[in-house]
Amino acid sequence: RGLGGGVSVRRPLAMEAAELRVGFVGAGRMAGGLARGLLRAGKVPASNILASAPSDKNLDAWRESGCRTTHCNLEVLQESTLVFLATKPHMLPAVLQEIRPAVGPHHIVVSLAAGVTLQTLQRLLPAGTKVLRLMPNLPCVVQAGAMVFARGSGAGDGEAALLKSLLSSCGLCEEVPESYINIHTGLSGSGVAYVYLFAEALAEGAVKMGMPGGLASRIAAQTLLGAAKMMLETGEHPAKLRGDVCTPGGTTIHALHQLEKGALRATVMNAVEAATNRARDMAKD
Amino acid sequence: AGVLAAHKITASSPDTDLPTVSGLRKMGVNFTVSNKDTVKSSDVLFLAVKPPIIPFILEEVGPDIEARHIVVSCAAGVTISSIEKKLSTFCPTPKVIRCMTNTPVIVREGATVYATGTHADVEDGKLLEQLMTSVGFCTEVEEDLIDAVTGLSGSGPAYAFTALDALADGGVKMGLPRRLAVRLGAQALLGAAKMLLESEQHPGQLKDNVCSPGGATIHALHFLESGGFRSLLINAVEASCIRTRELQHLADQEKISPAAIKKTLLDKVKLESPSLSMASASKVSLFTNKSPSSKKN
């Protein structure tokens, strides 16, 4: 089947989110997170969301939320205007080849695949297709994600604005030059894991000092949440916020000294660098 | 700084060969080898001897201390109460102020703090503050913070000199002539310090302002962090402060043996007080732009 036919009548860009038909090719964790964000924020009704996956394993959760599901990738293209490509990166080229005949000028194609460049995407899709590349992170699921996207040559201000407006329901969403995407991976995509590691260590410290683990864990998480919220809401420099907590000769400054002795800052910088470099390397493969 | 006329300043030292002595004389300062004469001709008396010498000096000049005198001790680790105790055998209400300054008073960019003793009035503290503000920053603090100040700004210039030496090495390694490297390094630190003092911003923010994304500076900073630069500086301040407290503790117990006092100084002192079994060493009661060697911390 080619363009048009049935439901996918060529229509003006559906800027009204309520009318927008959103599709997901690939229904894994990241896709699920985005969809859940859109649903929770009430941006898109579940009936307007269609997801495809090879097996039913991932699709059950979608159906439970009221979304429509299919095993046919082409159907997603035919039914949707805004299409998220959320397959594993190595599978993407084959999927693109499969869906290419169904891609038309009205489509907005957003790829979530790590390491697959806009250049590659545009090469494998019809010329002029509106393509954007999105790098979200896992907390999109709870509407506290950090996402960046870059637009391809066929995508204009309208598409960028639409994506930003929709995804702001899942957290922070900013447009960036494509070169920042790998950095975002190192900072925030992988960064979530660094935070989990830190939270675990905080809790363990507390357990060592005599607090039960479950309680310690919840408090650790809330501490991170609270600190992050203060940073975002006050807009103050973290160094200043840190200073505000440090009474002279008090507990905090003693603890911070330990962190500095352990060169925590350099280690974290190393981590971000390593993940970014790895993302860059993977993109070359 | 033009705050005092030279002829109003008296300095004394038993050792007239010190290079500082001729420097002081050239400035027009009254010089004497008699500590007692210095006390008699002064209203504000700076005790600028090494800390172990303080008790002996106080014994020597105690009888000449009058109600008008403000005794200012610059000796690291010597408490107000120890000075007051020594002087109270001679004078019922000695005015004592303890101060901690640093070597850049020489170029009028000193960092000075002071704490007032039991009998020192507000005006006495303000007088000292006025004097010391003419050579840099000066503020009053609680006495228990003076050890921390020693660790930070007392020893601080040494940390800076070390850093500057190393920065210059870096410059030389990358091809700069030594003199230029030293000059540029010093100017960089001077400029940065000035920016911070004149800015409302946090130093972290000022640092960020210098670091363009992916640029040279952030690469360099990463190296500093990897080396634990910050913690080294914290360690240094802590070590200096702790050592100051140790010295103070030792002094309080008067455990400093006479052997700690330089033999040459003992030989040269002219004893005026028969009650003194131990000679006084060099004392400079002086407000000066040229720091005598006895000001070492």
List the helices and strands and how they pair.
The complex is a heterodimer of chains A (285) and B (297).
Chain A: E1 22-25, H1 29-40, E2 49-52, H2 59-64, E3 68-70, H3 73-79, E4 82-85, H4 92-99, E5 108-111, H5 118-124, E6 130-135, E7 145-151, H6 157-167, E8 171-175, H7 180-189, H8 191-208, H9 213-234, H10 238-245, H11 251-261, H12 264-284
Parallel strand pairs in A: 1-2, 1-4, 2-3, 4-5, 5-6, 7-8
Antiparallel strand pairs in A: 6-7
Helix pairs in contact in A: 7-12, 8-9
Chain B: E1 10-12, H1 19-27, E2 30-32, H2 35-40, E3 44-47, H3 54-61, E4 70-73, H4 80-88, E5 95-100, E6 110-116, H5 122-133, E7 136-140, H6 146-154, H7 156-173, H8 178-198, H9 203-210, H10 216-226, H11 229-252, H12 263-268
Parallel strand pairs in B: 1-2, 3-4, 4-5, 6-7
Antiparallel strand pairs in B: 5-6
Largest sheet of chain B: 5 strands, mixed
* Averaged pLDDT of chain B: 83
Distance between the termini of chain A: 33 Å
Structural class of chain A: alpha/beta
Oligomeric grouping of the chains: heterodimer
The number of distinct helices of chain B, counting runs of at least 4 residues, comes to 12
What's the N-to-C terminus distance of chain B? 23 Å
Looking at the structure, what is the overall shape of chain A? Answer: elongated
* Total beta strand runs of chain A: 8
Order of helices and strands of chain B: EHEHEHEHEEHEHHHHHHH
